[in-house]
Amino acid sequence: MSDVSSDKAAGKGSGERFSSLGFIMSAIGSAIGLGNLWKFPYITGLYGGAAFVLIFIVCLLIVGMPVLLAEMAIGRAGRGNASSSFRNLASSGRWGFFGFIGVFGSFMITSFYSVIAGWTLHYALNSFTGKLYNGTDYNVQFETFTSGYSPLGWQFLILGLSAWVIARGVSGGIEKFNKVLIPALAVVLLILMGRAMTLPGAGEGIDFFLMPDFSKLTGESVLVALGQAFFSMSVGMGVMITYGSYVQKEQSLGRATVAVTGGNLLYAIIAGLIVFPTTFSFGLEPAQGPGLVFVVLPAAFSAMPLGAAFGGLFFVLLAIAAFTSILSLLEVPVAFAMDRWKWSRVKATAWTAAVCFIVGVPSALSVGGVLSGITIFEKNIFDSLDFVTSNVLLPVGGLVVTLFIGYKSKRAMEEAGLNGPLLKIWVFLLRVIIPPMIVLIFLYSIGVI
Ligand code: PFF
Description:
By secondary structure, the protein is mainly α. The chain has helices at 20-31, 34-46, 50-78, 84-89, 93-129, 138-147, 150-167, 170-197, 202-210, 219-232, 239-244, 253-281, 290-302, 307-341, 345-364, 381-408, 410-415, 420-445; strands spanning 375-376, 379-380. The protein contains 18 helices and two strands.
């Protein structure tokens, strides 16, 4: 199937470019998100601690990194959006359609991811002012908040801020903000880690998080690690293709891949070193997702000296992590609209963010709100969207990227800049190892195996 001559000369794309550091920071900003802070720690605790971290690292090495590099290479070689980059490289429009899955998927993820990002702002504010700690039942507080209409306002604010940044462009907006926010995130993480690890009884939490327990390693933990490697590296949704299209010719994509993977892993592990010592130190039970950060942790902060400030900082941390991920997700449909309809960046951003907000309203109102009664396969609207995008669109998008470089576009393969044994290993992984692994994650997550 490999056909060099069918690779069309790549277009120049929008002409917008990242600086070298700006690209690394923006890609790290995309990767680090709610996935690191509320999912990774919990599944690690559940599936075998350090033993699971080891499996996760293996998944990053053999699946996450190769696919990340593949996406960046497709973007830079194709110099188009998540759909047209494929079309520019292959002569058939079919590949452009496959690429469109990413455009659609990232738009849909933004619509509900921004709901949670909005919640974190509300919680940050209420923690700093102390209002969060007036009552004691955090479950009731959470349900009262999410069943009302105010989450819509917060979601609107987050999308509005994202649109404002994106409308300023790649170097004047996206990279400028990531270059400030990612180091800020590191500072806040380190402060919170210092606090968490010095709490009395913190050791128990560290044990829960990292104590290697190989008996908990099952086929299931491997599949969970694989799925997490995908989501957390932001691959499969065209994000890294879109960002890759703004990378300068001279930049090493291999080095960028290593930096993004390392940064992402480091932040995930530090997140665990905050969450579990804090939870266990106050005799609380860990949970996953919303339950962990909006119910369990506030109870811990309320019992901690200066808890309102630390709690506030924690929610700011979540907000920043989610925000920089949203910038990357929203840029995918924005870049598509700019290319497809020849819209200006400002117009494309305004429309995309506005439509995304409207599409996100049902998600925001379905977590305990007026629309919570509507269920699809026993899941509310929010959970259904999360399920379909993470478990169906993401693997399909990843498979498209893998097969495209593995079997279709020599031009994109060369763009990665690998040679010698590294190139051989990479191509072998993309052709032989990764496709069946993706199919396995897919079958597992839709409940077939
Ligand atoms: N990587 C982000 C996280 O871990 O929260 C989420 C994400 C961003 C997923 C971009 C997919 C994506 F394309």
